[in-house]
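Example 5.3 — 3-hydroxy-3-methylglutaryl coenzyme A reductase
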Amino acid sequence: MEARRHQKKVAGDDSLEASDALPLPLYLTNAFFFTLFFSVVYFLLLRWREKIRNSTPFHVVTLTDIAAMVTFVASFIYLLGFFGIGFVQSIIIPRAPHEDVTDDDEDEIADLDRLMIKDDARKTPCAAAPQFDDLKIASPKAAPKKTEEVIDEQDEEIVKLVVEGKIPSYALESKLGDCRRAAAIRREALQRTTGKSLEGLPLEGFDYESILGQCCEMPVGYVQIPVGIAGPLFLDGKEYSVPMATTEGCLVASTNRGCKAIFASGGATSSLYRDAMTRAPVVRFGSAKRAAELKIFLEDPLHFETLSLIFNSSSRFARLQSIKCAIAGKNLYIRFSCSTGDAMGMNMVSKGVQNVMDFLNKQFPDMDVMGISGNYCSDKKPAAVNWIEGRGKSVVCEAVIQGEVVAKVLKTDVASLVELNMLKNLTGSAMAGALGGFNAHASNIVSAIYIATGQDPAQNIESSHCITMMEAVNDGKDLHVSVTMPCIEVGTVGGGTQLASQSACLNLLGVKGANRDVPGANARLLATIVAGSVLAGELSLMSAIAAGQLVKSHMKYNRSSKDVASIKS
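Solution (predicted structure tokens):
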């Protein structure tokens, strides 16, 4: 104990520890408080037992009882202070299992952890960082000005510990309290571990606090994707400038040409005919008969009101719309569909489903919930159930493009577009066995808008389900074109939508955040803008193919003029 006090004195640490409670050797102090704690607990249990037998009210206490309770609290505080904090830290931030750590290393790490986590009582996940002036691992010299390539002396010590596995990389934010600093240290440790440079991957200029605990773990920088603007898209009587984040040349320019053709022809109209996010758990019974009994129970209209009340209690915005079941032997797949306001809604519908599963377990105690998602939803996978039943927002968008505009803006003719659409988007896709892919390049536009507005890019898979239809109207002079998209999965709150860049793009479209007047209106409007943009993209690409311009335009706008051989690895 004296040695520890000497170490604290040398380190300049005047703070009190639990072991300073008595002027005794550490093992005697611990033994005293252990004995005191369990003795008092035993005494209080006997007293409570006696009061129960004699029917004495618990609030009637003697001086002995009060003294015992005070002693209990004091001994508990001591034991918690001495053992509890270290124990909790060992669970939250475990040591690397592959490291062989000596006693001297343990002492060094314990001192470092104590200094790094000292007074770490932040109200927010990543508050202002405690200054490392308290650390004695480096001399208090003036730190050099930080750049992306330079690590100061204090952070250098931490980088070495991360490389050696003594500090887990994932724990840097919680230890340092500075998200940007944690990213810089992790980045440097990664470069040393792999021997590969991250030059070119930016570190500065990003708010790392905004992604902590919600968007990305263990960041080392961010990827720059240019954002272009297509439009104005004249849709349902309003004009929209559509942000598209992409690295594919011609994409924004092509979509912009489609917007021009739509605008010159009086605009496009859209209809959102379904709005329902889905989640489908899978449950198992001991027999197929029991699985069928639950299917009948769930699809009985008499039970829907009860189930919807249970489901809707999970959120202010979640509203159960339907339950559809599919049986496979002893297994039952239950597809819940619900509206989710302005959120994309996956988490919201999952909470509601969990409530219903808890209720059904009481009604069917032999039911085993195998998974909250059984792939009958179906999320981030091409699936016929989504193509037929829809998922998220289902939108149809159409426009009549005048023959004169087709010739002057799109550089082709109506008959050629109609024939090409039939041969390519319909027959060609059928020959390929396409599932929801009866279009030219809907996923191009969907992905670009999703990345720009903070949507989940992986949901591009089902969101790009689209069938493009073209036919000649007005005696063959004009072109009627439409896109039907049954699975547009978008939200204007939650996830990446709250990041600064993505939020700015949503604001450009007028759909930032939640709609206070009509919940869900912003997300529905965003879905129609996505469909309208796809309509523009389909028009332009199909016209380029019909006119034989596709290869020529890509050679002009989608080819780099840089000498690839001169680029350093």
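Remark. The domain at 227-275+390-558 is CATH 3.90.770.10 (3-hydroxy-3-methylglutaryl-coenzyme A Reductase; Chain A, domain 2).
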